[in-house]
Amino acid sequence: MNRMLATIALCFGLMPGAFGADEHDLSTRHEVKRADLSGAPNMEVITSIAEVAAGQEVPRHSHHGLESLYVLQGSMVQFPGKEPQMLATGTTIFSLRDVPHGGFKVVGESALKLLVVHVVDKGKPLFEWVK
Q1: Pairwise CA distance, residues 95 & 118, whole Å
Q2: Per-residue confidence of the chain (131 residues) as pLDDT tens digits?
Q3: Distance in angstroms (rounded) separating the CA atoms of residues 78 and 8
Q4: Of the CATH numbers 1.20.210.10, 2.60.120.10, 3.30.420.10, 2.30.110.70, which one belongs to the domain with range 3-125?
Q5: How many CB atoms lie within 10 A of CB 50?
Q6: Are 11 and 102 in contact (CB under 8 A)?
Q7: Fewer CB within 10 Å, N or C, the chain?
Q8: pTM above 0.90, yes or no
Q9: What 3 state SS string does the chain have?
Q10: Spatial distance between the Cα atoms of 66 and 118, rounded to a whole number of angstroms
């Protein structure tokens, strides 16, 4: 994985702002399906389509499980103190359990659109916001 993708993989991750259920909710995460994870009664799988509009920020956050993203429509993103970089269509990102990620702003002219799959602990918040 090249350096840019490694940085995004560690810092990105769905993407909370686009996928939360509290004051950080950008109302742009559309849950497509939610189901129990077979063989793991305390886990669930949540599939969503998320869109982060140009100018919106994705706050740092973590999940109580895994997050996998596929970029449906890329855009330029910028992390604090860094140069803007392209998050290209077709990019895949994997965020590990309880590892903070996100913390960027969409600075491109178009929205960033994502297919997001969470495999998380059932009954816990989908997002934990990092202060």
Answers
A1: 9
A2: 444 443 344 344 433 334 444 445 545 899 999 999 999 999 999 999 999 999 999 999 999 999 999 999 999 999 999 999 999 999 999 999 999 999 999 999 999 999 999 999 999 999 999 98
A3: 10
A4: 2.60.120.10
A5: 24
A6: yes
A7: C
A8: no
A9: CCHHHHHHHHHCCCCCHHHCCCCCCCCCEEEEEEEEECCEEEEEEEEEEEEECCCCEECCEECCEEEEEEEEECEEEECCCCCCEEECCCCEEEECCCCCECCEEECCCCCEEEEEEEEEECCCCCCEECC
A10: 6
Structure tokens at 19: 């996928």
Residue for token digits 């965020």?
Answer: 95
What are the structure tokens assigned to 17, written together?
């702002």
